[in-house]
Amino acid sequence: MSDDLTRTPGSLLGGERFEPRRSLAEQIAKHLEDLIVRGVLRSRERVQEQRVARELGVSRGSVREALLILETRHLIEILPRRGAMVTDLTEHSVNSLYEVIVTLYTFMAKKVAQVWQEDDLQPFLELSAQMRCEVEAADQPAFFSSTFEFGQSAIELLKNPYLEEILRDLAPMALRTRFFADTINRNAMVEGLEFYDSLVDAALHRDLVAIERLIHEYYARQQRLVIQALQAQAA
Rounded to whole angstroms, what are the CA distances from 106 to 39, 58, 130, 159? Predict the structure, then answer.
């Protein structure tokens, strides 16, 4: 585990204070989630409740609650008499994850293409323009965040609470594998920009066939990259 969980470089918390609008447990969970997504906390690494509480200056009860949140998001496994451990990223878990998220993302994108009304796609167009600037500036963290906003914008448009709950719980693992794939793909930002631009264009034309093809091709490549990275790590 990092020597100092509150000051890990690149943390989404960025050294900010905890936010009162979110519960303390949720903020701790978000902090630990970021460390796992970026690989600071690695597969099968123990997350020591007492140490996290001490380093973040919070109660063990709040940490315990945060770990339960992370367990529902498939980032932490809580084992009897062994405590919390970062879930193992394996070929099987990656393949299982992509089988689900490709289906969900395809459904969501097709639904957006079918139901959008005038101005509904404006947030997506603005995000595309923002992402183009981020690629030009080689600002990977900002680009990474913008891609996540795409999904959030789609969820807001569809107003489907069940889909929102499923995607919220799967999003951290999807981000974790995405980050892992990007470590061996130097063209990740450019490829991502092309994908999202093409996806928005297909939605504008309500082209459901193109949407399905784009999503399947993009995530199949990402899945292969994650598997390659896992194999390289094990070699």
Answer: 28, 41, 23, 16
Closest CA to 218 of 159, 180, 178: 178
Number of other CB atoms surrounding residue 61 within 10 Å: 12
Q: Is the pTM of this model over 0.85?
A: no
How confident is the model over 161-203, as pLDDT tens digits?
Answer: 999 899 888 989 998 998 888 878 888 999 999 999 999 999 9
Q: How far apart are CA 35 and CA 145, in angstroms?
A: 15
Residue with tokens 């084992």: 79
Tokens 């900010």, located at residue: 16
H/E stretch holding 2 reads none
**Residue whose token pair is 């498939």:** 74
Q: Six-digit token pair at 131?
A: 């992402």
Check pLDDT > 90 for residue 20. Answer: no
Strand ranges, E, within the chain: 46-47, 76-79, 83-86
DSSP tag of 20: T
CATH superfamily name and code, 91-234: GntR ligand-binding domain-like (1.20.120.530)
Q: What confidence score (pLDDT) does residue 2 get?
A: 43
The answer to whether domain 5-86 has CATH 3.30.230.10 is no
What pLDDT is stored for residue 14 in this prediction?
34
How many angstroms separate the CA atoms of 84 and 82, rounded?
A: 7
pLDDT for 19 beyond 80: no
Whether 174 and 101 have beta carbons less than 8 Å apart is answered as yes
pLDDT for residue 21:
58
